[in-house]
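[Q] Does anyone have a clean structure-token version of this?
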Amino acid sequence: MASKIFTGDMPEMMENILSNLRNEHYSLYSCALVNRHWCKISIPILWSDPFSFNKLPNFISRYFSFLNDDEKTVLRECGSIGTIISNTLFPYAKFLKVLDLLLFVCKVQLWVESLCTDPLRQVGKEIVNLLLKLFIKSGATLSNLRTYINFTIKPEIFYLLGKNETFFSRLQDVSVEGVSSESNMDGAIMLLRILAENATNICSLSLNTLNSIHAQPINEVFASIIKPQQHIRRIILNYQLNLHSIVSALESQCKSLQEIKIFKCDCSDEFRILMDCENLKVFRAIYSADRILLRILSTSICKLTILEISSNQFDASNVIQILERSGSLLQRLKLESSLEVISQSSLLETLTNFCPNITYLYISSIKFSTQLPRLIQGLQRLQFLTLKWIRDENERANVIKKRVIRLAKLLPSTLRYLEWKALRSNPHNDDLLNNCNAPLGKLLIHVDFGKKKLSETLIKFHVRKKTLRYVNVTSTDLNLVKDFEGYVIHVPYEKLVVHC
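[A] Here you go.
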């Protein structure tokens, strides 16, 4: 069996194995050097998303050998760049699967600037259009597309896209970004219309329109993309002011929709179509009209596995109805309120009684009541916990201390990640760590005083549990990290934080 794999007699199995290295470019490149069979499998995977490489894109010149004579003439008019044409072994352009137009244009311009002492922006635009033309004509079929029109696409590109239906035919993940200027508006709409005609197997669709001037025409053509789809599973809407046409189009996807994310959108009762999304499993509402959305969702028939609500304020009663219906299916929950304390008594009781299988829990703006330790005690599968609690000034310090110690002792043996912060003063960091038996591997903690003592506590916890490796400490004391160097690794917050 092993000999068959290494000699290439089982190419399908080898392709599946090497596909797992898709994001590990150096490892995939090493596999391409093993033998001829591995090379034939590795190179198409390596070149499926070349513009995501975090290095100078010198590979761009590899594409030039596939240009026709007229295109090479145009390239030579770009100056010294036009002379960089080398022979290649593979039809690299045909392997393209992922195209992020914004990243693509930036990488081309970066490459041009690395070669020209006085680069002209027009040179980069010319090469972008030549490469787009090559990708389409080569027979490439995209699976992932992010559109962001910040350059002028030549009419011949749209003509080729209209003739070559296969280029967009296998698209599964599409992200439509805002248009950078009025001059690019027509090109953006034309591109989206071609998408609507040729891409009918999209599973994930995202719309992000920052400029309200361009929002409405983009929204309408975006809706035309939604309607012919066979099975959209995920929809993401960011910064939308008028969702009427999009929401109306989503009605055709009620049976297939599994995930909805709405970020800073102007929502209305039109979202009542959510009531019919029986297969909806993931719902995220982030600083949108949460009261409306939650009221609608609370009366729907769906049962969620992931619920994320971030808002200035929201109605806990609607959340409770969603939790009760989702019950043991719920695995990840984030409830974040930035302006008011979360109404917690009935909410925590519902979580304790109905949702025992949560593996990720994020709660902010919550008081440290006696119910909180009881909830944690019941979550025996919890792996990720974020608590941003508010100290009740009416509670005595020794009472809060006892509750913190009790919670620390009840943290389950499955817990690997903890983010701990009191939104006012927090003198209980040491009480938490000294009594915690959970095998934490990652810890994010806030310090406002007692810095030296915390360093000692961190070191003791590391020595005692032998599991803690990565820490982020939010503190104004820049010397604090030096106190526990050699024991745990301090990591920037954005690299250590785990999102819902």
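[Q] Thanks! Anything notable?
[A] The CA atoms of residues 150 and 180 lie 5 Å apart.
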